[in-house]
Structure formats: structure tokens, C-alpha cells
Amino acid sequence: MYGLVDSGVEYVTGSTGHVTRMPSLTGSLPTRWGVRGVEDLGAGLRGIFLLESGFGLDTGTLNQGGRFFGRQSFVGFSGGWGTFTLGRQYTMLFWSLLDTDVLGPNIYGSGSLDNYIPNARADNSIVYRGTFGGLTVGATYSLGRDVINAGPSPAGTNCPGESATDSKACREWSILMKYDGSRWGVAMAVDELRGGPGAFAGLVSSQLTDRRVVANGYVKLGEGQVSAGVIRRDNEGSLTTPRSNLWYIGATYPVLPAFTLDAEVFRLAYENSKNAANLAAVRGTYYLSKRTAVYATAGHISNDGNLALSVSAGSAVGISPGPGGSQNGVMVGMRHSF
Question: Whole-structure pTM over 0.90, yes or no?
Fold first, then answer.
């Protein structure tokens, strides 16, 4: 058994005022608990499983659309050739960003601009991933990517798939190629979601797709790291702004043995449109021990055109800025892992 609990207090400005709250989705990292196991089957072959549940620490309710094991749930085999697993799992988009998006699922970060990024998972998925020296390759294929109806959000997109009448409906696939050296690394990935009847985000037909292409890299400088990347998105479910690019540059540095500073800037721009957003965020983390840390994080977003994205990925309902507006957020919190 393992887990992580993370919570704090956030202050966010909005077009109609401000809110002070305890976020339910994420702080510096999302709260979760899980169980995992491995059995040696001989000849280098192992049987593996993992069940992981995400929940809101503020109220104790389940996240990921109310799924009991909504973060991950899979069973499979592993060996020198890699791992092969079946269940609800991360897509290759997640693994491609793991080393370069330095803020990751921080409450102010890439998830504020594209909320699929920290929720890149697929139900009913078949996954292979293997690492050979510094090279990692992987692929996913989902027979039905998301069965939960939780409103138009990555927590549930109402697209179960596994249809007897439409073999393309609600499928998902992704591929990954990644290289990690001693001081640098690069990654490329493609992640495609296919629509189906009743699906959210405009993907109401199996003929429509939402594809993201990722390219990124990082360099280690002394004890720190600088990274950059771009996510190209082509969403056929959007009639007005189907194409966009999300650029990011980030850095992390251990200022003291027990204190690490992370900073990242993002630029989301839609092609042939004035809609765009710029986000900057910084986080300082002080480690009281290997398992317990306190942190402070701050973010600022400025929207252009008709875009009205919130700086916070922590579900601040009703506190988004107005179209073309800006917003600030600050949060202090603590986390403990076990």
C-alpha cells in the first residue's frame, strides 16, 4: 500500500470578486492512495497489478468522475522486454511530459490551459511500454476510452465505446519514443481521442478526432534542469478553433539541500484566432523529511480574445476571469507520502 496526501489554502481572484478555499483536485500533487503487487513467475517473468484511487482531501469524495480506482487500475506481465498491461491506464502523453513539464499537475500549470494533460488516462486500454538502455518506446490502444458521464471535463467524457455497431467509436491510441541520457533527454508522442454519440467536447461522431502531438526535451545544468516543449492539438470537435499550440519553458533548481524552486511559463495560442493565454507560475518546496514537505505556489494568467481560462486547475467554480481577462492565484500547503 502507498499514497500521498496534499492540501492547503488557496486565494484566487476573479471577474466578480475573489475566493479563499481548500482545493479538491490538486495542490502541488493530486491526493491518492493505492495498492500494488508483483509475483515472480520464473524465467524473468513477473505478474503485476496496480489499483490507485484519487480523492479530494477537503471532503473525502472520490475524484476522476467518482471512480473508486479512477487514477489507475491494471493487471499484466513484466520482464526484460518491458510491460504489457490491461485496464484503466495512463496514455503515452503522460509519460512523454513526465520529465519536462516541471510543475506537472501543480494547481497552477499546464492543466490550467489544457485539462486533458493531467488526466491523460483511458479506460479499457491495452498498454505496452519498454526501456532499453536510454530508449523508451510505448503504445496504448483503448477499446472504449471513457465510460463516465461527469459533465464536459476529463473526469468523464460520456464516450464509452466498445460498440457493436460502430467499431471506431470512442477509441483512443497513443505512441511514445523517448531517450534519456545522463544529462539530457528528448521525447515525442502522439495521442488521439476518437468521438462517439453523446460524447462531450464536440466529439459527437466516431468520424471526429482530437489529436495531440508532443515534442520536448530537457538539459541538466549542475544540480538543476531546464526544459522546453510544445503540444500541437488538432481538435475536429471544435468548429471555430480546432488547431492550437501550447508552448512551455520550465526550470527547477535545489537552492538549498532542503529547498527546491520550480518555475514555468506557458503560451497557448489558437490558429487564425485572437484567442490565446499566457500563464506563469512558480513554486517553492521545503522538505521537512523525505516524506513530508511544505510549499508555496503562485500563478498569473492573462487571456486574449474571447478566452476565459482560469489560473487554477483546482475547480474554482464561478471564479473564472471574464473573456480576455486576467487572474492571480496563490496557495500554501503541505504534503505527506507513505
Answer: yes
